[in-house]
Specification:
Strand order of the largest sheet: 5-4-3-6-7-9-8
Largest sheet: 7 strands, mixed
Number of strands: 9
Helix content: 10-25%
CATH superfamily: Vaccinia Virus protein VP39
Order of helices and strands: EEHEHEHEHEHEEE
Distance between the termini: 38 Å
């Protein structure tokens, strides 16, 4: 089992209610993921997740993946269901990270995943281990993609050819990407804008 890494100074903002979303495909298809009712926690909608994993197709199987603002864990758990080799979930809320660990145990996915209980910027200051797929879905309203895309690009977090899923408000448009990143797909659904980029080798 891969151990849980916790940050005891992180404070919970859970308000006590429970919500759930459904895993769309793979070995856990139809299983529901429960998560706390935390202000600002908004799982990626089913329609968007379905499109994303159609984009990724067989690239998920055997991949090492990072869910950087994990929240409910819907993106990372979907990837595990579809055969990802390893998932690192980064989530600073105590309530959300504990709920995610419970879901991993219930689904039997704890041997392929670990939950890191800390903020994304702190995690990205640790020694990097390259990933094949990164899910970057930060809180809306503060242009966080503009902050975290350069942080991912500057470190050795991304394998050559890595795929990065980016989610933001539809009104914000497609995010600005570093020179070696290539925008492959860009769509919207309701108020959600979502994009898939490939990271090419450094020149």
């Amino acid at each position: 089992m891969i151990p849980v890494v916790t940050n005891p100074k992180t404070e919970s903002s859970a308000s006590g209610g429970r919500n759930s979303v459904r895993i769309i495909g793979g070995s856990w298809r139809g299983r529901r993921i429960a998560f706390p009712d935390i202000p600002g926690l908004r799982p990626t909608p089913d329609r968007v997740r379905e499109t994303l994993f159609n984009w990724l197709q067989s690239g998920v199987a055997g991949a090492r993946c990072l869910d950087l603002f994990a929240g409910s864990g819907a993106l990372g758990l979907e990837a595990l269901s579809r055969g990802a080799k390893e998932l690192v979930f980064v989530e600073q809320s105590v309530a959300a990270s504990h709920a995610l660990q419970e879901q991993l145990t219930r689904l039997g996915g704890q041997t392929r995943a670990r939950v890191v209980e800390m903020g994304a910027s702190r995690y990205l200051r640790s020694p990097p281990q390259p990933f094949d797929i990164v899910f970057l879905d930060p809180p809306y309203g503060r242009n966080a993609l503009a902050e975290y895309i350069p942080m991912l690009d500057a470190g050795e977090w991304l394998q050559a050819g890595a795929l990065v899923f980016l989610e933001n408000e539809k009104s914000a448009g497609a995010p600005e990407l570093p020179a070696r990143w290539e925008l492959l797909k860009s769509k919207s659904a309701g108020e959600v804008g979502y994009h898939l980029a490939r990271v090419n080798a450094r020149t």
